[in-house]
Amino acid sequence: MKHVAVLKIGGELLEGDQRLTALGKAIKSAAKNIRLVVVHGGGREIDAALAQVGIPKRQVDGLRVTDGETLNIVVSVLAGSINTKLVAAINAAGGKAVGLTGADAGVAPVEKAAPHKATNGETVDLGMVGMPIKAKAPALIAALLKGGYIPVVACIGASKKGKLFNVNADTLAGSLAARLKARRLVIAGTTPGVLDKKNQTIARLDKDRIEKLVKSGTANAGMVAKLAACQTALKGGAKSVAVVDGRSPARLVKALNGDKTSATTKVVN
Fold first, then answer.
1. 240-245 and 184-189 as β-strands: parallel, antiparallel, unpaired?
2. What is the domain extent for residue 213?
3. Contact 119, 214 (CB under 8 A)
4. How many domains does the chain have?
5. 3-state secondary structure 107-125
6. Tell me: the pLDDT tens digits for 7-49?
């Protein structure tokens, strides 16, 4: 039986028709050999939409501080334009993609995130940001995978009372990988893996080295959330976790199929 893999795609990889088309083909190709779940972000498109209406951007350690106005923009961009375009690109390549958010049928139940202790020591209330809660594997995603579909999940979650929350895409991907008992989590962005102080790719990371990277400030902004997501997936039973350069479709397919590639950081327990 095909194993489950979770792919998190940074929003920067979804910008431009050519890049989106290539990504759709890569996802369709990878899904031939695995049961694939895709989680996507969309930070820069959200930033642009916020700027258009004069709402200032505020982030802490790569986590977006989200008030009510910001949440409305986040939902419209992630669950609307970005999710729909990515689903269409995968289907145009011959795949069977279905667009979802975490609010669909228990895909990503969340609660309001606790105040965040930033790497600079400041404690920040993130507002309408959700953190995944312990839950069974989402039955909807399991059913879609069994039917040969590719679930494409926008990183919006819902509380038990139906309140919507913005969820960091890396955090959501790590949580889904753990709940689905995925064999593999691949986090794809536009950097060649996790970088050291000399901007060289770190081939292998364990818990101790991750802590050192965060404490020293070498890993900052969005990378802190990525590394935390990797650890969540590993604790949930994932056998392979990697942070990769997703700008090469061929490299991305190899990573999803478990092949070693350059520009990749493998994260281990």
1. parallel
2. 4-267
3. yes
4. 1
5. CCEEEECCCEECCCCCEEC
6. 999 988 999 899 999 999 999 999 999 999 999 999 889 999 9
If residue 143 lies in a helix (H) or strand (E), which one and from where to where? helix 139-146
Q: What is the CATH number of the domain that holds 71?
A: 3.40.1160.10
Amino acid at the residue 72: N
CB 205 within 8 A of CB 194: yes
Tokens at 179, concatenated: 């709940």
C-alpha span between 184 and 36 (Å, rounded): 10
Q: In sequence order, what are the residues at sequence separation of 6 or more whose Cβ sits closer than 8 angstroms to the Cβ of residue 226? A: 62, 170, 187, 189, 194, 243
Residue 200 token pair: 């060289």
Tens-digit pLDDT profile for residues 41-90? 998 899 999 999 999 999 887 788 999 999 999 999 999 999 999 999 99
The span from the CA of 40 to the CA of 254, in Å, is 19
d(CA 26, CA 20): 10
